[in-house]
Amino acid sequence: MTQGVELTAEQLAGVLERAECLHDADAIEAALNRLGEQITAVMADTRPLVLGVMTGAIVPMGRLLNRLDFPLEIDYIHATRYHKTTTGRELVWLARPQTPLRDRHVLIVDDILDEGHTFRGLIDECLEHGAASVHTAVLADKPNAGRVPGLAADFVGLTVPERYVFGAGMDYKGYLRNVDAIYAADPADED
Ligand SMILES: O=P(O)(O)OC[C@H]1O[C@H](OP(=O)(O)OP(=O)(O)O)[C@H](O)[C@@H]1O
Ligand code: HPA
């Protein structure tokens, strides 16, 4: 079960008003175009299985798929470690992919790469189940000192600073994923 966070519309409007816009809608659009081109160049001939990491992947994955004009299949993984809060904990599996992974070229898509524990767990799971290769794509990369050693995404849309960010699929305590820009929350709103 995820831990619910009660926030009113008024409180959320305040969070948005105090937040700093890092990447606007045009920048996101351009980043998705670049991602589409880079992924196409590497994976167009691999008939990949594209795995979205719920819930954050919903927005970037939907928008990215329109830019991948080659044969592919889609499935999803649900693993979470932030539980609608702003601090990561242990990775909890809610759903594993139903499509057999053996000998498949897998592309894992997520909204953000932060410390990297989520990707580490997902990549290892795919390889344990026999994937032929595993690539990763994120809309936002947040380089930080707590990053799992050696972990980097293969395809990165935008870079964000070491602050709590939301929008374009990324949540603020479960909300604001549907905002069409990437914002950094005011430090006072981070707890
Ligand atoms: O690199 P990490 O530090 O592991 O963090 C990245 C993960 O955190 C977020 O997921 P979250 O657990 O918040 O679930 P969500 O997708 O439902 O927001 C995000 O969507 C990534 O999957
Ligand atoms: O900064 C973040 N914002 C939203 N979700 C996240 N998951 C990891 N880091 C973040």
From TrEMBL:
It comes from Spiribacter vilamensis. InterPro entries: HGPRT, PRTase-like, PRTase_dom. It catalyses: IMP + diphosphate = hypoxanthine + 5-phospho-alpha-D-ribose 1-diphosphate; GMP + diphosphate = guanine + 5-phospho-alpha-D-ribose 1-diphosphate. NCBIfam families: PRK09162.1. GO terms for cellular component: cytosol. This is Hypoxanthine phosphoribosyltransferase. GO terms for molecular function: hypoxanthine phosphoribosyltransferase activity; magnesium ion binding. PANTHER family: HYPOXANTHINE PHOSPHORIBOSYLTRANSFERASE (PTHR43340:SF1), HYPOXANTHINE-GUANINE PHOSPHORIBOSYLTRANSFERASE (PTHR43340). Keywords: Glycosyltransferase, Transferase. One of its GO terms (biological process) is hypoxanthine metabolic process. Residues 22-169 form the Phosphoribosyltransferase domain. Pfam families: Pribosyltran. The keyword Transferase applies.
